[in-house]
Write a structure and sequence with these properties.
The chain is mostly helical. It contains eight helices and two strands. It has a two-stranded antiparallel ribbon with strand order 1-2.
Length: 229
């Protein structure tokens, strides 16, 4: 039987171990998450939005949101490299990206904190629960870095020391966010997916309710794609 091995799961065309997720979602979403080649941000999000909507996995849409976040981090890193080379500070692009991360922090992390974390902790071992606690603490540090980035942004260009500080903060922020998402995908999400159908259905209802209070994923996919043009 053909299969694909990852650190926390083995997926195959005949059997899926983690969360009973359909193959289509993982085949679209995991290549980027695992650092494989051929990632197309816009097409990934468009296709995954449609596929995640019909899957039974608790965290499918959260994985799609991670795809959006990784795309935004790539764009922010590109802006920082432009600043590091002494080019004009891309204030419009940075303002748009900071708005994304502020909203991402509000709706994505809220859905994790209110639904996914409690569900995962209910099924976690002591060691896993300790790791989840460390993840939450690390996220608070990343939020502080985001607030620091907001202080750097100005409509006009930055002074030399500010440019250096902006570049360093972006690199640290991006590294932390990528590590946190990777840990969530390896530890937090599988625990939240490996639950009973009743728990999964209740979690989906809660996630959908929170999602309606935030911006649409497709809207941000289009806005990020425009920045990538």
């Amino acid at each position: 039987m053909f299969g694909i091995c990852f650190p926390n799961a083995t997926l195959s065309l005949g059997k899926i171990r983690v969360g009973d997720v359909r193959v289509a979602v993982w085949m679209q979403v995991l290549p980027k998450f695992c650092g494989l080649a051929g990632f197309q941000p816009a097409s990934l999000v468009q296709n995954s939005l449609e596929t995640a909507a019909v899957t039974e996995n608790t965290t499918s849409m959260l994985l799609v949101e991670h795809g959006l976040c990784r795309h935004a981090l790539d764009l922010l890193a590109r802006a920082a490299e432009q600043v590091a080379l002494g080019l004009e500070f891309p204030s419009g692009c940075v303002a748009e990206l900071l708005q994304f991360f502020r909203e991402f922090e509000r709706w994505h992390h809220r859905r994790e904190d209110e639904v996914v974390v409690p569900l995962a902790l209910a099924h976690a071992s002591d060691q896993e629960a300790e790791a989840i606690g460390s993840l939450i603490a690390d996220r608070e540090a990343s939020q502080e870095l985001l607030y620091a980035l907001m202080l750097f942004w100005e409509p006009a260009d930055l002074r030399e020391e500010e440019r250096s500080g902006f570049v360093d903060t972006v690199r640290t922020f991006a590294d932390r966010m990528r590590r946190e998402m990777q840990l969530e995908e390896r530890l937090l999400y599988p625990l939240a997916d490996w639950v009973s159908e009743d728990e999964r259905e209740q979690a989906r209802v809660q996630l959908d309710a929170i999602d309606r209070s935030g911006p649409g994923h497709a809207v941000w996919a289009d806005r990020l794609r425009a920045l990538d043009a």
